[in-house]
Write a structure and sequence with these properties.
Two copies of one chain form a homodimer.
Chain A (H helix, E strand, L loop, with lengths): L1 H41 L5 H47 L1 H14 L4 H11 L3 H12 L9 H26 L3 H27 L3 H28 L1
Helix pairs in contact in A: 1-2, 1-6, 1-7, 1-8, 2-3, 2-5, 2-6, 3-4, 6-7, 7-8
Chain lengths: 236, 236
């Protein structure tokens, strides 16, 4: 009962951390890159509507690229798992003694005595499916990937990127002067990055204040760098 | 000797896949997002120099955000590992019977007989360090992260993004007409995405032609979407 609950706990822990990973990936880039792009353009052009166009084009491009990037990463993981699974079945069939030696080595590394190693290998290799499952999980460290994960991941990352990206652009919708809009954009984006960094760090078990500061400084650095680059080229 | 070689093989496999993962992450976004941004702006503005400014600002912002994103992901992994390690040591100290039951359950899941489970738990829990190490690796599925990985990852992803991002911008340096530059940009970027997708798929064991097509279509979709969004806003 207790171990069952414990298992459920781990499962739900892993699932929520998948979603959180996606949101963190999407939103931290979504808040940072369109913000930095808008900041860069604010130093080089006079028209806020141009910055809005560039910003929304970037959000469209970034959310598709990142979402599909997440999708492909998930798909690749599944393909990789299946090709390794096929290879393990082949090896168990063709070179069973070598595969048995690998199982034995696993238990030797756990600190089992010689006698116990033999016993464990005997029980472990009785059932071919269990044997292959064991090799996949504990020799190669591969868990069976969730087949729906790739699609969910694409969606979560894409949406998070769009939500994050709209934040820094908002002032440019309402303010005509680019440098004035940049001031508001910087204010709200750094505030959002700080709050985002705080909760992200809470979830991952890092000191939240330090984590919040770290995320905020990255956003500021990216924006400052983009601003500098755009100014340099514009004045060249 | 054989198992040692086998172990080295796995290690080098993992290391090269870390680097490849970084390059894939950085370059697929680097080729796609600045390309799509440039495509979007080509449909809405007349000046190639403006597109160059926006593109370089995006590359500066994107490479910093993605590189630092990779850095933070690596750092978070290390912090997470250390906090879980501390908790496992605490639990082994405070609730050893529950932890022993979890070890027993692990061996039960492997298909061990009741007698062998007892034997295995006894040997496994003799040494506290080995015990905790076992819990970390096989109950929580956490490997000790490489402490230098975060920095390497940041660098690899950032550089890959810059290299990828320069490709679609190149025509805008040399051609004055934005739509003409977009044609060349589309040609060389889709070609690069195809080649990139081909080799990436070869490495990950996916059918390379299908993988190449998939990556190319994503880039084209992102660019078309950005172009459409920018046109829509510009004409509104």
């Amino acid at each position: 009962m207790d171990t069952h609950l414990h298992h459920d706990h781990i499962e739900s822990h892993l699932q929520s951390s998948d979603l959180i990973t996606d949101v963190v990936i999407g939103m931290s880039d979504g808040l940072t890159v369109p913000f930095a792009l808008a900041a860069g353009l604010s130093g080089a052009v006079d028209s806020t509507s141009l910055i809005v166009i560039a910003g929304l084009a970037e959000i469209a491009a970034g959310s598709i690229a990142m979402g599909l990037g997440g999708y492909l990463a998930g798909k690749t993981e599944i393909d990789h798992y299946n090709s390794e699974l096929k290879r393990e079945y082949d090896e168990v069939e063709k070179v069973p003694e070598r595969e048995k030696a690998e199982v034995k080595e696993f238990f030797a590394n756990l600190g089992f005595s010689e006698a116990l190693q033999h016993e464990a290998v005997k029980e472990m290799t009785k059932d071919k499916d269990k044997w292959v499952d064991f090799m996949m999980k504990y020799e190669l460290g591969l868990d069976k990937p969730d087949p729906t994960r790739a699609r969910k991941s694409a969606f979560n990352i894409g949406i998070s990127y769009i939500i994050g990206g709209i934040v820094p652009l908002t002032p440019y919708f309402f303010v005509d002067d680019t440098l004035q809009a940049l001031k508001y954009s910087t204010l709200i984006t750094l505030l959002c990055l700080f709050i985002f960094g705080y909760f992200k760090s809470k979830v991952t078990g890092v000191n939240p204040w330090w984590g919040a500061l770290r995320v905020t400084l990255i956003g500021a650095a990216a924006a400052a760098c983009a601003f500098g680059v755009a100014r340099l080229i514009e004045s060249a």
